[in-house]
Amino acid sequence: MKNVLDLYFKRKSFDLVLAQIWNVPTGTLEDDLKALYELEYKRSMIMSHGFSGVPERRDNIIDGLTEKLGEVIENLKGVLDATFKDWLGTHALLSPETWAEKRISDIEEYARGAFDQAVSEYARYTGDGRKHETILEELVNDAVSRLSEFPSLKKLVDLLMEDEMNRRYDELGEEGYEEFGRMVRMEFKNEEEAEEYISNLTSKDVDLGELMVSGGHAGFFDMVEKYADARGLAKEFYKNFVFPVWFAHWKEQGIEETRNTIQNIYDRLQSVSVNNTGNAIAVINLAINASHQTGSMMDYISSNANTDLSGGQIIELLDKLSAGTDVEEWNQELREVGVNI
After folding, report:
1. Which backbone phi and psi does 270 adopt, to 5 degrees?
2. 152: which DSSP letter?
3. pTM (2 decimals)?
4. Domain shared by 86 and 114, yes or no
5. Residues 208 and 140 in one domain
6. How far apart are CA 90 and CA 304, in angstroms?
7. Does residue 276 sit in helix, strand or coil?
8. Same structural domain for residues 83 and 114?
């Protein structure tokens, strides 16, 4: 009887070890990355080494590892797919429109927040050390002179031009055509000629940039919020002002080659399937390693994943996993279930 019980408990103990070999935590980014390395290693070892036991048991272990690996692959594919899509959106080199839309997508204050951020980025990439108000006035003047590229500004421009023309009509009435002419550095023969001059004024004749920011940033933001499409104008600022200087800066850093690499990996991620674990693991490893090499990609992963880890901490985790610090522990588990290592 004792021998039967011993055999029973040995068998139960063995079955527990057998189950535990693929029963690893999953669900968070940290757990899924650990699980990918662990399950892939155990699966490859049992498939490439001898086994002390019945073939059915070996097949069961492989099936269990494969099934769990499929779960991890799906988790990581979802995170990496969202990450690479996000990165490509913010690095849309061939579409300034897409790039600008992505840039403002998470901005809540489309007047103050958006333009403060746009001017800051513009100043950083151009090396312009002037006050932001000075830069903003210059950019607004430029936008007014290129109004077809800034349609969101048209309503505000029209209102300001109407106010400016009314102000000049008032000055003409108060000062007379001769004094008014001296004020605007023109010479008029009569009041009708002065009125015709005012009626033909265009935005190119008036320093609207100075008018718009004459009340400081707060005044400009207030006007934009009341009389313009604030979100649309923010997007146009990013598209027409920030994107060109951003692209010029990063082009020198090899951004075009990097983007091609990321696009290629993203395209390959679309083919990842649990039905082809070999290809899935290869592509996921490629994506993880590409992210690892660029560094900044890890911040995108951190924001898209279920994790409390920062980009730097994810890199540290990958370094540890790549170093194989847990391999001996995994080997011991494999020996206990009958793998000849």
Report:
1. -65, -20
2. G
3. 0.63
4. no
5. yes
6. 14
7. coil
8. no
Asked whether 314 and 304 are in contact (CB, 8 A), the reply is no
**130 with 224, same domain?**
yes
The tokens describing 85, both together, are 């899509």
Q: Which one-letter DSSP state was computed for residue 206?
A: S
Q: What is the dihedral of CA 81, 87, 91, 93, to 10 degrees?
A: -10
Range of 84's domain? 15-90+271-336
Whether residue 254 lies inside any domain: the answer is no
Q: What is the pLDDT of residues 290-322, one digit of tens each?
A: 765 555 677 777 777 888 888 788 888 888 888
The number of distinct structural domains making up the chain is: 2
Q: Is residue 174 part of a domain?
A: yes
Residue 128 sits in the same domain as residue 34 = no
- Give bridge partners of residue 51 from the DSSP assignment: 339
Asked whether residue 99 is assigned to any structural domain, the reply reads no
Q: How far apart are CA 322 and CA 319, in angstroms?
A: 5
Nearest partner of 295 among 267, 314, 269, 323, judged by Cα: 314
Q: Kindly provide the b/e burial profile for residues 153-168, where b requires at least 16 CB atoms within 10 angstroms of the residue's own CB.
A: beebbeebbeebeeeb
- In this structure, are 146 and 81 located in the same domain? no
Q: Tell me: the pLDDT tens digits for 176-218?
A: 999 999 999 999 999 999 999 999 998 888 888 777 877 777 7
Q: How far apart are CA 36 and CA 27, in angstroms?
A: 12
Question: What whole-number distance in Å separates Cα of residue 237 and Cα of residue 242?
Answer: 7
35 touches 326 (CB < 8 A): no
Q: Are residues 122 and 220 in the same domain?
A: yes
Q: In terms of domains, do 146 and 82 share one? A: no
Residue 284 and residue 76 in contact, taking contact as beta carbons nearer than 8 Å: yes
CA neighbor of 275 nearest in space, from 70, 28, 29: 70
Residue 61 token pair: 């272990």
Categorize the per-residue pLDDT at 172 as very low, low, confident or very high, splitting at 50, 70 and 90. Answer: very high
Q: Does 152 map to a domain?
A: yes
> Cα-atom radius of gyration of the chain, to the nearest Å?
33
Closest CA to 338 of 31, 2, 61: 61
